[in-house]
Amino acid sequence: MGGNSNVKLIDDNGIRMDGRKADELRQIKIEAGVLKRADGSAYVEFGKNKVLAAVYGPRECHPRHMQDPSKAIVQCKYNMISFSVEDRKRPGPDRRSVEISKIISEALEYVVFTENFPRTSIDVYIEVLQANAGTRCAGLTAASVALADAGIPMKDLVPSVAVGKVNDQVVLDLQKEEDNFGQADLPMAMIPRTGEVLLLQMDGHLTRAEFDLAVELGTGAMHKIYALQRDALARRYAVEGGSEESEDEPQTAQRTEG
Amino acid sequence: MNRENEHPSREIVIPGDLLDSGKLKAGSGTYVQDGKVYAALLGIKSVKSNFVNVIPLGGRYIPSPGDTVIGKVIDIGPSNWLIDINSPYPAPLHVNEVPWRVDFGDTARFMNVGDTLLAKILMVDETMRVQVTMKEQGLRKLQGGQVMEISYSKVPRVIGKGGSMVQLIKGMTNTRIFVGQNGRIWFDGEIESILFAIRAIKMIEENAQMLHLTERVKEYLESVTKQEGASSG
Prior knowledge:
The complex is a heterodimer. Chain A is an alpha+beta fold.
């Protein structure tokens, strides 16, 4: 939050630097099942953000002391690749990525039915290939698609988006300049069907009225992102869909001997 | 998303999709919230005798009692073997559960680390502690042969209706095949025939949802076995 109001981020017609209106999302692209070796994966683009998420598991939890005898744990690792930003990012975990990993695992832990897999760990790896503000939201959006792709039982998909305040105006889905020179940033994630909030952070200041408007804008946007997530998963299997040739239910399939 | 075909029970559902609001009971791969049934898995919706189920399209094998699985010995103790059954949970096999009389500390003489075996899931408790047994007809150590792994959700397709698919592959390639419920498949026979069988199974795995798969596999196997016969004869 530079708070530098000299920069003109929104013109007199209410059009932002990249040509969007205040309540407009960036171009979003979601693809499921992009990695063959992972149990589940997804690739997400939020404008210039490019994020890859991979899910492994449920698998035996290592280190052993982390395992929970009553449920699975969700371990998330958010990482920005060194070439993801303009100045080379020093590789390795830092304060910021540890924080983001934590909040994303907590958001995902809430939707996954962890009690189905005691003593295991579900590992989520989020790699930011290119960053342009809002990578935690893109990362969480990708991670939840990857979890569903991995066949992990979960309540719902989790769309996520950031809302912010730029030139005293509440705008949706901040891009890099707006994030750097804007007045507030409010990343959030929720289950659209129930309205349960899974992630809500705020950097900067918003009045109560601005906050309410921001949540309203974000909620609307999350419904759109949710539709895209569903579409990505449906598309993955669409080609294969519509089989009528028979098959036994998994339970009745019997072993056959040679 | 609404796949408009004549098989409404073949609909692909996504976690969070509403499956039924009150009439049907929640089956596997579903959850209930406020009296309504929602999908918990990415899979295919199926309604059977008043239950809505979601048949998964992927995921890890989770053992359930009675499943026949192909395991690998990963550790041995004085009175048990530890078997990897391709699931998040390794399964101990106690000496009382094998068809041989094993003296204490003599386990390595019968099976060693790396050996493959056909076993049955005896018991799974609520904390997912698994026990396997070999004390049943047909269960044994698998000597020689090859093992391949596929997604466990594709196993029913590989077996086919009443075992038709696996019978076809066995008959046409002249190999011995065991299909474990955990997605492991064991082959024995001529190397070329095993390769054909493996390719046929990969074909099934990749095209699991395809129509007339049995015929396609038959065509493939006919073409390769004919070539084989021509080149060797």
